[in-house]
Design goal:
- This protein is mainly α.
- About 70% of the residues lie in helices and about 0% in strands.
- Helix 3 crosses helix 5 and helix 7 runs antiparallel to helix 8.
Length: about 160
């Protein structure tokens, strides 16, 4: 199955995000991001995933099939049909976006990221902010699945 819970924030912990701007284009610095900023960002991303599920889940499924993560996901799609697998994903996302699950996932991921360099946390928060700010669900989905992709590729399931 797709198991979407904790995908986002663990993806944020596992992938790089965008590069910082070149020095000559650097704008005046705002307050530095900290791991304290991860929980609210994580919650915003989960909320947007829920709102954009019809666009997000097919893109996520395509990436999972491409990476064969979890192993056999392509065979599952062939056997059950894409619509059936997407229906399962919608059910899982509905469960995974319940406030208590989101809070636990986001809190756990923030605790893991406490060991990461400040620059890494800032990059991940910047990328998450770009995704949340996307004008429509399609753009959000393409953005956030690129964050998810790093986690999916690194995961053992």
């Amino acid at each position: 199955m797709l198991r979407l819970h904790s995908l986002l924030i663990l993806a944020v912990a596992a992938c790089g995000g965008s590069s910082p701007p070149p020095a000559e284009k650097a704008a005046p610095q705002t307050a530095a991001h900290t791991t304290d900023d991860l929980v609210p960002m994580c919650k915003r991303i989960f909320a947007r995933k829920e709102t954009c599920a019809d666009d997000y889940l097919p893109v996520l499924l395509d990436h999972r099939v491409e990476l064969n993560k979890p192993p056999g996901i392509g065979d599952e799609v062939k056997a059950k049909g894409r619509d059936a697998v997407l229906a399962i994903a919608h059910t899982e996302l509905a469960s995974d976006t319940q406030p208590d699950k989101v809070a636990a996932t986001c809190d756990g991921a923030a605790a893991q990221m406490a060991k990461a360099p400040t620059k890494r946390v800032s990059q991940l928060l910047d990328q998450g902010g770009k995704c949340v700010a996307a004008a429509d669900c399609r753009a959000f989905s393409m953005c956030v699945v690129e964050i998810d992709r790093g986690f999916i590729a690194a995961s053992s399931h």
